[in-house]
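Re: Re: token formats

Sure, here are both.
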Amino acid sequence: AAVGVVTGKMHNEEVREDEDGEGFGALRRSVNVSVKDASKFNTEQILGFSKAIIDGSRLVNVPEGADTHPRLRVGIHVGPCMSGIVGQRNFRFCLFGDTMNTAARMEQKGEPDCIHATQDVVDLVPHASWEKLQRMEVKGKGVMQTYLLRSNKEILTDSRPLTAQDAFLASPLIHRIASFGTGTSAWTSTNTAESFRVGSYQDIQPVTSEVYSEHTFCFGLFFRKARVEKCFLDALARSDKNMVYAGYLLYVVVLLSNYIYGYFRFYVVCDDIGTLDSVESFNEGLDSTACLYYLGSDPFLSQNNSASTMTSYKNIVRASAFNLTPGSAALLLGLVVLGCASHFYIHKSRRFVHKYWALLNVWVFYLMLYGSMLGTTILTKRKDSSTSQWTEALWFISVTMDTLQTVFARSGFPMHFIFLMIGSGITLGWGMTELAKVEEASFSDKNGDNQWIGSLDIQAGLAPTRITSSVIQLAFFLLCFNVILVIGAYQEDISNRKRFLQSMLLLRQQDEIIAQKRKTEKLQKSFLESILPSNLVEQLQEEDRSALSLSQRHIGVSILYADLVGFTAFCKQVDPFEVMVFLNSLFRVFDDLCDLFGVYKVETVGDCYVASVGVATGRMISQRVDATDSTREYSIDFVDSYSRSFSTSASISLVKDAARSNTRSLVGFAKAMLLGSRKVMKPVVGQPATLRIGLHSGSCISGVVGSRNIKYCLLGTDVVTAAMMEHEGAPDRIHASQAVVDDVPEEEWEIFKLVEDRDGNKLQTYFLKSIQPVREDTC
């Protein structure tokens, strides 16, 4: 453990890679306090932590049947170090430097339930009850003055000791890994969700004016990206396709209402005009004047005044707002049917992938309807100049078509604005032209009796002042009406575009969240696979296994320990950063060899590289261990009992074959490690890296230890024996036990010596002769 690296008072310097990528050099300091103040504070913190873990370790009961109670031995040193990640498999955040090595030596030379510290620690915390020891020889450091701090051995009597099962079940990691397997990862609900709240995503409810202006131009009428504009128009066409049919239907209803209006107007209001016998009686009726103004004098002359004539189709359409002749009715109805059919075809046909063509289609047909009605009015005016119905028809056409186009066409503001300008321009232009042609007409009573209507001039029956007033009113009305429609259409279009942009940003945000979630899940899986074997992670996901079943027993396993020769003295001579770069280069060479030989990298501890075959790779023979079963015998040496579970000799042979295969793979990996290490040069000293490798085969148990900076570990007697093979070996040699030699007898072995394991048993060990050693002065 450390204080001052990521916790405590930090005095850090960030090392960055050079721009050319060939070296490192640029430093960025992150200094909050002075080095002296930081060292004093951090040393006091780590000293308090050391006391706490020694006291806490006494509260944990050992498994039943254990002969001894393990006791902690703590070593402390203070100084600079380098932090970073080495390797590319099962990577870990590590600390490097002479400070780390000195602290490790303090632990090795310490006593149980005591804190062993250097002079530097005592100088920073002199008030503690330090016990001065005799000067001792420390490997790689020479003679050092050290001190001992004995922890308080008093334990609260009411404290219930924690069992191993309690500690395992209380581990937060266990619940995190379990939730990852069920798809409800704790990382996703906490850390990942928190990262989303930091500000990675912008709130889009509602779309602000600043956001909208960033995505649009021309007063917000068009999106800056053409593909976005196409998507908006396509969405608009799809969402409002039924409104177009409703518009066409309402148009037909309005035309039919025009007939009804003409019938009642002529039959009810203007029916008795032909019975008037004097100018005085004519002038007294306001309705009479209006009828003569709009219908002209022809329907009311005596020679045409018959029942059949009064109720004829011609007189009804003359009395309506729009003179809908049979020909024009057929034309308009045909356009409506054709417009509906083409609109239906565009939306149903696969040829039109983009449905925004429907917007252009309805716009064109509405313009054709507008033009057809204006054409009908113009032709009617030229054919029958005795009526002023054309002024009322302009009102009817403008109001009907502009309203329907605004409400039902749904073609967007730009096309709507163009439609209004074209329609209004033609309507007012023709109206003003006709107004200029009107000449004054006089009404007089020339004949007395039935001939009370005087002679008519070329524009007989027209009142110029009424026409002028009507056209001026129409112009003013269209101006106001179109301004209202334009403003409303603009606001609606902007609102539609903002809603579309809001939906688009929401979808984009959802895609980013999904992508981030996938990235996070991938990172979580990668992180778990750097802690646990990949096959174990897959089982957690597929089988929905509880994390309590992570522990496994393995037989036929081959274990390797490799250590750098002279690493302590090397760290003393070289800058910690260069040490980290060197280790990273060396371990990357080993990591690249793992796939080639089917080896699983268990961990790296400082300069020690631990690997195995038969735990997560190779031929695996494993047995799950229920961590909640307190009655289970936790003996690691279970080969005999496991072998007895097989009912046939063929099964026992299968175990032996697996052990031989795994050992053969690991021996090949060890050879490649020695050859590869010779190609990596130590900085400053300029010598190749020299390894000391130990091999052993047997059984072990695997599992997760701790709840912070967790580790996937191999535990057992055979694991300790493999470490002892490395420790008792020689530089640039592969030191193996009798079990390894028995599994791979085809290799050239030479007897080395007898070593004693932790149980006091004598083991015959061997050196592999196939790899010729390289002379190394430093051991």
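Second one below.
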Amino acid sequence: MAGRTLAAALLLGIIAQKSSAFSFSPPSQRTHHYASSSCLYFSRAVKENEQHQNQQQQHSHSLLWEKTLEVAPDSYVNPAIDLAIRPPEKGGTGILAIDDVKKDTIVLCLPLEQVGMIDAASILDSAPEGEDAVFDMLNVMWNKGVASEKNKKKGEDTQEGERLAVLVGIIAHLQLTRYKDKTAWTATEVKEGHALEESRRLGLFFDAMPLLPQQPTPNNPLQHPFPTHFLYWDDDEIEQLLQGTMAQTKAREVRAGVGLVIREWSAAFLKEHSSMKQSEILNAIFSAFTAVLSRSFGDEAGRDLDGAGRMLVPLVDMLNHDSEEPNVSWQWHVGEGDEEKIKAGRGDIAVTTLKDVKKGEELYKCYGWRPAWDIASSYGFVPRLKKERWECSVIPLFPAVLDLAPDVIATPNQISNDETSLDLLLESNYGVLVKAVLAAVDAANEIEARQNTDSGSEIASKVKTDRPAQLDRLEVMSLFRPPPALTENDFPFARRQPCVVVGTKIGASDQITSSNQQYHREALKKVLPAYRAAASAIAQLRLNHKNGDSSSSIQASQMAMAAASLDKGTDWDEAALKLIRLGINDRIQTIKGDGKAASTWLAQSTTVRRLDEISLQHRQFRADMSSDIREAELNVLHTLYNELNTLA
């Protein structure tokens, strides 16, 4: 019963209730959410001493920087860099150059064994079986991930999300344990064992992480660390502010996934932290998710399941993000012949400059390319466009409602009976079509690969560009849409519209955008086979309707021929480009219309409902982020639409 209660608390929006108790200042060029202005946890008055009071006066990140370097004698910090503690509205915590630094200079080198790297494998490996319900549960999840990874090598699906969730569970469990350790009246209130030992070993890092629950002090106002992360939005904000964007799909996926995880974890967490309120446990789990999503590193060198694991590394994660002009990168560093140290979680992380860095400039690392809606779902911010960057939007694969008889004027009776149209927002109608399109594109790619091999032209296709690898594969995603007017009375619920992801390099000016014309054309070329196949499917559906045989299935072979441009009887390129143009127009109108509706709702919600000042701030931050997401998509759509006109 208790487990169901904790899971239900999430679904009832308990997180929205607590968020109003915190304050936050908006980031400018933001990255990690180092929003707190002092240590997050404080002992009760009976445990305070002079040393603790002095530490309270020092910023938690400054304290972490200083103490970590003290306990890591083999670490190296270039004297030309230093930690910068700034207000959140001016960029928050970061690392600055306090002197000129040349290209290819190592500015930071940290031995993982000494600085307190946090990864799931090493903590779970040393956890005694049967001692701790949370660790036992997470071990089961981890082992499922190991088995899944082995299956992956056999071509089967994996559960990568479970491995990330395991690290989240460890962070939340250790944070709650540390919280009890620092606030307990008596030693008997805290359970001795592996969790307590690990929470103390990593305590300095945890104290510097912006996680809840927080304890108030007279001179330290509470600050909510993640006001823009989707996990902390309320349902109305997700529905209204993100309507019509792919970010809404991502937000729903993230929130639903976390909800399912909490259901599975409830019993174990309540058993180990029975003295704490359910809201406090939820606080820790939610905050652990946001921390791992925004601050963890992927380990390409082989740590944790052959590179599939995640880790948290102190100090290195204070580097902020810039996807356009990063000036540093990090990599594993070991001596010659010591590669095995990497797999054992040893060795160093070395941060090296990619270009000359001038005095006063901040060190920026690129976290990896992702579209605006996706980076918002992990980091809670949208990078501002400074010059140019790769960006994505989505284009509907099919119209929301397909006119099956475009050359015939339907009678009122036919329209009312829905005899001449097909609702393609219903999965029962579009599901088989999407599968057929994907199969047709796969077949077309195989045909093209064989033709390139036979003609010897495959070398040209391997020319290196900075185009993200994710954009080289066809990806179909679902966009939430309201029901069409013709069918909303019969099915009055939100639908999903299948859309193709399309990306190009956008610019901050028309001149920059025009200079990237080759990327715009390449973007259209990449998705053209999918729309050829879709056009073929539409043609077959209309022919079947005309012949009075609507129950007939579409021919996948015809779609594959169209996708590969082997059907010379029809100009499928023209049909495909028409579909793309209609889809882009639909998306532009949808984004603009829903953007206006979001602004109207925002104005009404802040006047009709009495929100406190902090809640108003948070809502405005979220509205601004929603606008940035829309602007990024619109930039891509307008750019590609203009390119379509040059091809006409």
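Residues 1-56, 153-158, 212-224, 300-308 have pLDDT under 50 and may be disordered. The longest helix spans residues 572-608.
- S.
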